[in-house]
Specification:
674 residues, alpha/beta, Methane Monooxygenase Hydroxylase, Chain G, domain 1, TIM Barrel, ten-stranded mixed β-sheet, eight-stranded parallel beta barrel, globular, binds pyridoxal-5'-phosphate
């Protein structure tokens, strides 16, 4: 607590004026004890909750709040959207022995995304009279979990939706997936002979499997294996575009992009294929500018540059026919429609129309036939599908206790001064009052260090100081202009809500790249959220927290508005839009393992079908990931307990009890259990 309230010494000025002796007047202070702005008598509406959490800005209509103040999923079904409360899903999961934290996957949402993507390209193509078609591909790396890929393959069938593989493991997934045979399999990444040979098997089965070439060595390998398998492959070339993109990965775009052929190598690749009599296999130009591209302008620029390659490769004799735009279609995590890294300044329709128009404007003057368009939108497709549901375990408040009477008999000078400050707070001298409080508090701490005051005295003084800071924080909003020194006071006094989850396991991008995900309570939204809080997770790591949220104005705020805990009632929150990249990038920090996972489909009549329930890692599971053998561990502990019996430290029945607990724990959930 003390660290949170620490201010650099330079901020605390030395008060100079002589003051009279303090006259404590502690009773009947109108501000109360806390800076808590709750006005319980004021009504609170669901619309105010919508505003507070911006749910209508970021949810793409998939989520909203019902009259009971609970978050609902508006699941798209063939019978129109069906609204189901997340609390009802939490209840259903509990009955199936899945306690939070649970990663909830909503199958309707991902199916709807694939349909939307295909329809949007189809209407852009119709609108612009583009003379070819579109085919979507899902990049497996974005969420490789079996049930996710299965559900994408299944719901993508009617669109010939394909899969993109960046490794041999992902190619195996693609080959065995239940996609349509007309679907594309796009092989990216560095490929060894086995990778290429696997691709040839997919070709033999009738899949349109493309080898997208990343390096010249791959060309030689493909040519060799073509002779071996006596099968004509589909080849694509991965461009290294000079176009730079804004956003999270700006540094890795353009010339410094890790992937793709330089122009020099591209020419060599074409010449090598021609010499091998295989230039007819070169059918695709591929580029991927990066993920989460916030500015549509970068996307247009990339397409235009890629078209220049397309034109010149055709003129050079490559037949081509496919233009693969890669990923990059961004998700608006904060709903601000801006070029900030967590947003985007375009929508799906604009994305499709801009791409189609840019291609036509580039190719038409050269009389070049329109290619079939391919895109590999991963993040956009799967992000809204998953919600991390978790409960709050406890809260730390930074609130003072009532100041005790009588006052300590021998308060030291700094404590006298703190009391004086407390009784003389003035709106127009708030910054000065604040500086004084910090100054006297630090003086008091010095006295404690030298032994001049004791622990009880210090605790009294700290509490007075906290009372002052809370009162000041409460008065700050009344100021016309808030001094910089006071603007963050409220944050430093905010609560810490401890959530039953691990940032590192379930929201790794929040830690790694400062990603902002929408986080909000999933019930009690007809009540005023009257606490300001940051969220801490279960790991013992100071990075294990969420303290970047989008506020009602779309700005980044370090605190989130939450409700007071009600005794004996579980408080549930959801972290939304977490379907892309989070599950696989998650790690075992502090040995918190995979959470339970539940895939849910909402039926046409609005009932919940719990399709798959996967138990999260047990403690034995995570121990085995870090080289322990749970059996051996148990054996070792058994021997230790036996020693205890020999030493008469424990009885035999205590040993049995101990072993049972140890064994049960090995099979238990790594998260907090009730
Ligand atoms: C990662 C990746 C994608 C997915 O990008 P999103 O921005 O998530 O849509 C697509 N294509 C390739 C080649 C990738 O490496």
């Amino acid at each position: 607590m003390s660290d949170l309230l620490q201010v650099p010494p330079s901020e605390a000025s030395t008060p100079t004026n002589d003051r009279p002796q303090p006259e404590p007047q502690l009773n009947g202070s109108p501000e109360g004890q806390t800076f808590d702005s709750s006005q319980p008598w004021e009504a609170w509406s669901i619309d105010q909750s919508r505003e507070t959490y911006g749910i209508r800005r970021w949810s793409n209509d998939y989520f909203d709040i019902n009259d009971a103040g609970e978050v609902v999923v508006n699941a798209p079904t063939s019978n129109g959207p069906q609204s189901v409360s997340l609390m009802e899903i939490v209840e259903g999961l509990k009955q199936r022995d899945l306690e939070t934290p649970v990663m909830l996957r909503l199958e309707n949402v991902v199916a709807d995304r694939i349909a939307q993507l295909n329809h949007a390209f189809a209407s852009a193509i119709a609108e612009c009279a583009y003379r070819s078609d579109y085919q979507s591909v899902y990049p497996i790396k974005v969420n490789q979990q079996c049930h996710v890929v299965d559900s994408i393959a299944e719901s993508g069938k009617e669109f010939r939706h394909g899969l993109e593989a960046g490794s041999k493991a992902e190619l195996l997934i693609a080959m065995a997936a239940s996609t349509s045979l007309e679907a594309l399999i796009v092989c990216n990444g560095y490929k060894d002979e086995e990778f290429i040979d696997l691709g040839f098997q997919a070709l033999r089965l009738g899949y349109r499997c493309f080898f997208v070439v990343e390096s010249l060595e791959e060309i030689d390998l493909i040519i060799r294996r073509t002779h071996h398998w006596n099968q004509r492959p589909f080849i694509g070339v991965r461009l290294k575009l000079a176009t730079k993109v804004e956003g999270q990965w700006a540094e890795d775009s353009g010339d410094r992009s890790l992937f793709g052929l330089t122009t020099v190598d591209l020419i060599k690749a074409v010449d090598t294929l021609r010499a091998a009599n295989m230039l007819d296999c070169l059918q695709m130009v591929h580029f991927h500018l990066g993920s989460q591209i916030p500015n549509i302008r970068n996307i247009r620029d990339g397409v235009k540059e890629a078209c220049r390659y397309y034109i010149d490769l055709i003129k050079d004799g490559a037949p081509l026919g496919y233009l693969d735009l890669g990923g990059g279609l961004a998700v608006d995590y904060d709903g601000t429609v801006s070029t900030e890294p967590h947003s985007r300044n375009y929508d799906l329709n604009e994305y499709c129309v801009d791409i189609v128009e840019s291609i036509m404007n580039s190719l038409d003057p050269h009389g070049i036939a329109h290619p079939r368009l391919v895109s590999e939108s991963g993040r956009w497709t799967v992000a809204p599908m998953s919600v991390l549901l978790f409960n709050i375990l406890t809260v730390t408040h930074f609130e003072p206790s009532p100041i005790e009477r009588p006052l300590p008999e021998d308060p030291c000078e700094p404590i006298d001064n703190l009391l004086y400050t407390l009784n003389h707070l003035q709106l127009r001298r708030l910054q000065e009052n604040y500086n004084d409080a910090i100054y006297y508090r630090d003086q008091m701490r010095d006295l404690f260090r030298t032994g001049a005051i004791n622990l009880r005295q210090r605790a009294f003084g700290e509490n007075v100081c906290l009372t002052i800071l809370n009162r000041i924080a409460k008065m700050v909003p009344q100021l016309r202009r808030i001094p910089a020194g006071l603007s963050r006071l409220r944050d430093s006094l905010s609560d810490i809500y401890y959530g039953n989850f691990s940032v590192f396991q379930s929201l790794p991008d929040a830690w790694a790249i400062g990603q902002v995900f929408p986080v909000m309570p999933i019930h009690r939204l007809n009540e005023r959220p009257d606490r300001q809080a940051i969220l801490a997770d279960l790991t013992c790591d100071c990075d294990g927290k969420l303290d970047r949220f989008t506020d009602r104005n779309g700005d980044i705020s370090s605190t989130l508005e939450l409700h007071k805990l009600i005794p004996d009632q579980t408080y549930y929150l959801g972290a939304f839009m977490v379907g892309a990249y989070q599950e696989t990038l998650g790690d075992l920090h502090n040995l918190f393992g995979d959470t339970h996972v539940a895939s849910v489909r909402i039926t046409d009549n609005g009932s919940i079908e719990f399709k798959d329930e996967l138990q999260g890692d047990t403690i034995a599971d995570v121990l085995s990931y870090v080289e322990y053998q749970p059996d051996k561990l148990l054996q070792r502990f058994r021997a230790k307990a036996e020693e205890g019996v020999c030493n008469k430290a424990i009885t035999v029945s205590q040993r049995q009890e101990m072993l049972k607990l140890f064994k049960d724990s090995l099979q238990g959930y790594t998260y907090f259990e009730r």
